[in-house]
Specification:
20% strand; 34% helix; lipid a biosynthesis; nucleotide-binding; membrane; ATP binding; nine-stranded mixed sheet; globular; alpha/beta; 2 domains; kinase; five-stranded mixed sheet
Length: 338
Amino acid sequence: MDAFVNRIWYQNHWLKWLLWPLSWLFALISGARRLLFRFGLKPIEHLPVPVLLVGNITVGGSGKTPMVIYLIELLRQHGYRPGVISRGYGSQQQHPRLVTAASTASDVGDEPAMIVSRTQVPMAVGQDRIATAKLLLAEHDVDIIISDDGLQHYRLARDIELLVVDAKRQLGNGMLLPAGPLREGRWRLNTVDFVVENGAQQDAAQRFAMQLKAGELQPLTTTAAIPPQSVKAVAGIGNPQRFFDTLTQLGYDVAETQAFADHHPYVAADFVRSDTQLPLVMTEKDAIKCRNLRIENSWYLPVDACLSDQFSAQLLAKVASVVAKKRIAKNEGRTNGV
């Protein structure tokens, strides 16, 4: 089903025109909702610390998780104490909860579990982002919150919006759901503070390039031996082909591939191999969900986001500006007895 939908959205399939009337309905409903927030008919809630939102306007993965990890490290290097909130997609959690090193993907979602495993950042997940952020602030000493996704969650006030685009797939056929992959129109690119293109080679006008730098293969099982060269690649991310291409570019002989839906809940039966001697290689996000499956001879490929010094400087300048404005507003509130 995912492959068929991708044909419609990214390969200009003629069936998009049958879905086009539904896209107009989606545009009407989503547009009306935005207007309710804009004119104050729906409340927007502000947090006492800056909110840096990392999102996208397309369905599926675009590279937000590496971007979030990059921002965590960047902000830490410059003296900030970041925390992260997320919906926790893929988990069964209904109420806000903190993410710990012991949290599983089924508890909190695969991406939050991976982010905390990699960075040990204070993090909370929950369907209500406001309640989730308040839990995080109550339990941890953070001075800036990174919201992982939620660009269309207008109830949460945000101080900085960063939008990630897949440089190769871009915006697909440019249509709104369900005829296309867009949650909001192309116009949204012009309203955010930063647009980052995952996979672009260099910065361009109004857009910053992000490259994913692969590290060394890491064993998922303790019985894994020397890193393999000929592998079976497995990926359950928004764009599995990007992972397969990365392995090939790194010089691995990708003998087989197997793609799953994004956030796929893995079970041992998913990894039946035609060649039992062929090592399995997966993404770090997939590996988080497979830690307890005891898959023999399995590995994962960690990646790190790389962005230009110009991007980092502009991002930090924007954060500093927001921090200063919030400090002034807080002091004025005290002066007025608020």
